[in-house]
Amino acid sequence: MTDTDQLATRTERRRLDDLEETPHAHVFDGEPRTVRLELAAGEGVPAHRHPERTIVCHVLKGTLEIRLGDEEYVLEAGELLKFDGRQEIAPEARTDATALLVLAPRADD
């Protein structure tokens, strides 16, 4: 098997629309963790941390408020936010919202 063949066997393709039945769906197995998060207006996720991760949040639809510690970020569809998972995070939807989150292993400082 060639290097190109080996890379092709690890390539995965998904449609986010196919995951609509699961509001907090893991898009792919393995690393980096990739999650499709869907929240109804006013719905949120309790404050939590991902200390071993760097996180990128891409809002696909709606408006999402993300509290990181004492700071608040309001993201509209098309906006991205990258942050250290050691911070306490509490996302809440201001409108019906869908986001794609990539939780990559954090590089050692």
Protein architecture, described:
The termini are far apart. A five-stranded antiparallel beta sheet has the order 1-2-8-3-6, with no helix packed on it. A three-stranded antiparallel beta sheet has the order 5-4-7, with no helix packed on it. The protein is built from one helix and eight strands, in the order αββββββββ. β4 and β5 form a beta hairpin. With 109 residues, it is mainly beta. It is globular, with a radius of gyration of 15 Å. The chain has one domain (3-105): Jelly Rolls, CATH 2.60.120.10. Residues 1-29 are annotated as: Disordered. Residues 37-102 form the Cupin type-2 domain. InterPro entries: Cupin_2, RmlC-like_jellyroll, RmlC_Cupin_sf. This is Cupin 2 conserved barrel domain protein. It holds the Pfam family Cupin_2.
Oligomer category: single chain
N-C termini distance: 37 Å
Identify the CATH class.
Answer: Mainly Beta
Overall pLDDT confidence: 89
Sheet bearing the most strands, described? 5 strands, antiparallel
CATH topology tier name: Jelly Rolls
Helical run tally: 1
Q: Report the C-alpha radius of gyration, rounded.
A: 15 Å
What is the element string, with H for helices and E for strands? HEEEEEEEE
Q: Count the domains.
A: 1
Strands of the widest sheet, in order across it, are 1-2-8-3-6
